[in-house]
Amino acid sequence: MIYSVRGILIEKNPANAVIDTGAVAFEMSISASTYQQLPETGQKAHVYTHFVMREDGVYLYGFSKMEEKKLFLLLITISKVGPKLALAILSGMDVNKFMNAVMNSEIGLISTIPGIGKKTAERIVVELRDKFGSMSVSTGDEPVAGGAEDVVSALLNLGYSRADCQKAVNKIYKTDSGFEELFKGALKELSS
Fold this sequence. Notes:
Elements: E1 4-12, E2 16-20, E3 25-30, H1 32-37, E4 44-54, E5 57-63, H2 66-75, H3 83-92, H4 95-103, H5 107-110, H6 118-128, H7 149-157, H8 162-172, H9 179-191
Parallel strand pairs: 3-5
Antiparallel strand pairs: 1-2, 1-4, 2-3, 4-5
Helix pairs in contact: 2-3, 7-8, 7-9, 8-9
Protein backbone atom coordinates (compact mmCIF):
# COMPACT_ATOMS: atom_id res chain seq x y z
CA MET A 1 0.00 0.00 0.00
CA ILE A 2 2.80 2.45 0.88
CA TYR A 3 5.81 1.25 -1.15
CA SER A 4 8.32 3.87 -0.08
CA VAL A 5 8.62 7.27 1.57
CA ARG A 6 10.84 10.12 0.37
CA GLY A 7 11.21 13.42 2.16
CA ILE A 8 13.03 15.26 4.93
CA LEU A 9 14.13 13.21 7.92
CA ILE A 10 12.83 15.10 10.94
CA GLU A 11 13.50 12.56 13.66
CA LYS A 12 15.42 9.31 14.08
CA ASN A 13 16.50 6.90 16.78
CA PRO A 14 17.62 3.24 16.59
CA ALA A 15 14.00 2.03 16.65
CA ASN A 16 11.99 4.74 14.82
CA ALA A 17 12.24 7.40 12.15
CA VAL A 18 9.94 10.20 11.00
CA ILE A 19 10.05 11.45 7.41
CA ASP A 20 8.12 14.56 6.35
CA THR A 21 6.95 14.29 2.74
CA GLY A 22 5.59 17.83 2.67
CA ALA A 23 1.92 17.10 3.25
CA VAL A 24 2.28 14.15 5.65
CA ALA A 25 4.96 13.06 8.11
CA PHE A 26 5.32 9.27 8.33
CA GLU A 27 6.53 7.61 11.53
CA MET A 28 7.94 4.13 11.07
CA SER A 29 9.71 1.38 12.97
CA ILE A 30 13.21 0.67 11.65
CA SER A 31 16.12 -1.69 12.26
CA ALA A 32 19.48 -0.62 13.63
CA SER A 33 21.07 -1.09 10.20
CA THR A 34 18.52 1.24 8.59
CA TYR A 35 19.18 3.75 11.38
CA GLN A 36 22.89 3.70 10.51
CA GLN A 37 22.12 4.25 6.80
CA LEU A 38 19.82 7.24 7.37
CA PRO A 39 21.27 10.74 6.90
CA GLU A 40 21.33 13.36 9.65
CA THR A 41 18.01 14.97 10.60
CA GLY A 42 17.07 17.80 8.26
CA GLN A 43 18.46 15.94 5.23
CA LYS A 44 16.60 14.21 2.39
CA ALA A 45 15.88 10.53 3.05
CA HIS A 46 14.31 7.65 1.15
CA VAL A 47 13.15 4.38 2.71
CA TYR A 48 11.23 1.38 1.40
CA THR A 49 8.25 0.59 3.56
CA HIS A 50 5.87 -2.16 4.57
CA PHE A 51 2.41 -1.14 5.80
CA VAL A 52 0.47 -3.38 8.20
CA MET A 53 -3.09 -2.86 9.40
CA ARG A 54 -4.22 -5.09 12.25
CA GLU A 55 -6.99 -5.05 14.83
CA ASP A 56 -4.68 -3.52 17.44
CA GLY A 57 -3.30 -0.74 15.20
CA VAL A 58 -1.68 0.50 12.02
CA TYR A 59 2.07 0.03 11.58
CA LEU A 60 4.66 1.21 9.10
CA TYR A 61 8.11 -0.40 8.85
CA GLY A 62 10.99 1.30 7.04
CA PHE A 63 14.07 -0.17 5.33
CA SER A 64 17.12 1.51 3.81
CA LYS A 65 17.58 -1.24 1.19
CA MET A 66 15.18 -3.38 -0.81
CA GLU A 67 17.05 -6.55 0.25
CA GLU A 68 16.29 -5.72 3.87
CA LYS A 69 12.59 -5.27 3.08
CA LYS A 70 12.46 -8.57 1.18
CA LEU A 71 14.10 -10.41 4.06
CA PHE A 72 11.68 -8.78 6.52
CA LEU A 73 8.73 -9.96 4.42
CA LEU A 74 10.10 -13.51 4.35
CA LEU A 75 10.79 -13.51 8.08
CA ILE A 76 7.24 -12.51 9.02
CA THR A 77 5.89 -15.53 7.11
CA ILE A 78 7.53 -17.82 9.68
CA SER A 79 5.31 -18.92 12.55
CA LYS A 80 6.12 -17.13 15.82
CA VAL A 81 8.25 -14.52 14.02
CA GLY A 82 6.38 -11.23 14.00
CA PRO A 83 7.47 -7.79 12.81
CA LYS A 84 9.23 -6.91 16.09
CA LEU A 85 11.36 -10.07 16.04
CA ALA A 86 12.02 -9.63 12.30
CA LEU A 87 13.35 -6.11 13.00
CA ALA A 88 15.49 -7.54 15.83
CA ILE A 89 16.97 -10.04 13.36
CA LEU A 90 17.69 -7.27 10.84
CA SER A 91 19.27 -5.23 13.64
CA GLY A 92 21.36 -8.14 14.87
CA MET A 93 22.98 -9.23 11.62
CA ASP A 94 23.75 -7.95 8.12
CA VAL A 95 21.30 -9.25 5.47
CA ASN A 96 23.91 -11.18 3.44
CA LYS A 97 25.55 -12.62 6.56
CA PHE A 98 22.15 -13.77 7.85
CA MET A 99 21.16 -15.31 4.52
CA ASN A 100 24.48 -17.15 4.28
CA ALA A 101 24.02 -18.40 7.87
CA VAL A 102 20.59 -19.76 6.90
CA MET A 103 21.88 -21.36 3.69
CA ASN A 104 24.73 -23.01 5.64
CA SER A 105 22.44 -24.05 8.55
CA GLU A 106 24.53 -22.10 11.08
CA ILE A 107 22.05 -22.43 13.97
CA GLY A 108 24.62 -21.27 16.55
CA LEU A 109 25.35 -18.05 14.67
CA ILE A 110 21.67 -17.25 14.12
CA SER A 111 20.86 -17.91 17.79
CA THR A 112 23.39 -15.23 18.83
CA ILE A 113 20.87 -12.60 17.68
CA PRO A 114 19.03 -11.21 20.75
CA GLY A 115 15.55 -12.73 20.99
CA ILE A 116 16.40 -15.82 18.90
CA GLY A 117 16.75 -19.12 20.69
CA LYS A 118 17.94 -22.42 19.26
CA LYS A 119 14.43 -23.64 18.35
CA THR A 120 13.52 -20.39 16.60
CA ALA A 121 16.86 -20.46 14.74
CA GLU A 122 16.15 -24.02 13.59
CA ARG A 123 12.64 -23.04 12.44
CA ILE A 124 14.06 -20.06 10.51
CA VAL A 125 16.61 -22.27 8.74
CA VAL A 126 14.03 -24.93 7.83
CA GLU A 127 11.44 -22.44 6.57
CA LEU A 128 13.71 -19.96 4.77
CA ARG A 129 16.40 -22.06 3.11
CA ASP A 130 14.28 -22.83 0.05
CA LYS A 131 12.73 -19.35 -0.14
CA PHE A 132 16.01 -17.53 -0.72
CA GLY A 133 15.93 -18.26 -4.45
CA SER A 134 13.99 -15.00 -4.89
CA MET A 135 16.77 -12.94 -3.32
CA SER A 136 20.43 -12.56 -4.20
CA VAL A 137 22.91 -13.74 -1.60
CA SER A 138 26.57 -12.93 -1.74
CA THR A 139 29.10 -15.38 -0.42
CA GLY A 140 31.28 -12.66 0.99
CA ASP A 141 33.71 -11.31 -1.57
CA GLU A 142 31.64 -12.07 -4.67
CA PRO A 143 28.26 -10.36 -4.72
CA VAL A 144 26.01 -11.11 -7.66
CA ALA A 145 26.32 -8.46 -10.35
CA GLY A 146 23.36 -6.10 -10.39
CA GLY A 147 20.37 -7.37 -12.40
CA ALA A 148 21.59 -10.96 -12.54
CA GLU A 149 19.60 -12.33 -9.59
CA ASP A 150 17.02 -13.97 -11.88
CA VAL A 151 19.74 -15.85 -13.73
CA VAL A 152 21.20 -17.14 -10.45
CA SER A 153 17.72 -18.21 -9.33
CA ALA A 154 17.12 -20.08 -12.62
CA LEU A 155 20.47 -21.85 -12.33
CA LEU A 156 19.72 -22.83 -8.73
CA ASN A 157 16.53 -24.48 -9.96
CA LEU A 158 18.70 -26.67 -12.22
CA GLY A 159 20.54 -27.98 -9.16
CA TYR A 160 23.78 -26.01 -9.22
CA SER A 161 25.17 -24.61 -5.95
CA ARG A 162 24.63 -20.93 -5.14
CA ALA A 163 28.37 -20.20 -4.97
CA ASP A 164 29.00 -21.77 -8.40
CA CYS A 165 26.04 -19.92 -9.93
CA GLN A 166 27.16 -16.55 -8.60
CA LYS A 167 30.75 -17.13 -9.73
CA ALA A 168 29.62 -18.11 -13.25
CA VAL A 169 27.23 -15.16 -13.60
CA ASN A 170 29.79 -12.66 -12.32
CA LYS A 171 32.41 -14.03 -14.73
CA ILE A 172 30.31 -13.47 -17.87
CA TYR A 173 28.19 -10.51 -16.71
CA LYS A 174 27.87 -7.45 -18.99
CA THR A 175 25.51 -4.57 -18.18
CA ASP A 176 23.83 -4.68 -21.59
CA SER A 177 23.20 -8.46 -21.49
CA GLY A 178 19.64 -9.77 -21.40
CA PHE A 179 18.39 -12.66 -19.27
CA GLU A 180 18.65 -15.27 -22.03
CA GLU A 181 22.20 -14.29 -22.99
CA LEU A 182 23.34 -14.31 -19.34
CA PHE A 183 21.61 -17.62 -18.66
CA LYS A 184 23.19 -19.37 -21.66
CA GLY A 185 26.63 -17.93 -20.91
CA ALA A 186 26.48 -18.90 -17.23
CA LEU A 187 25.22 -22.39 -18.11
CA LYS A 188 28.11 -22.81 -20.56
CA GLU A 189 30.52 -21.60 -17.85
CA LEU A 190 29.10 -24.09 -15.33
CA SER A 191 29.33 -26.99 -17.79
CA SER A 192 33.00 -26.42 -18.62
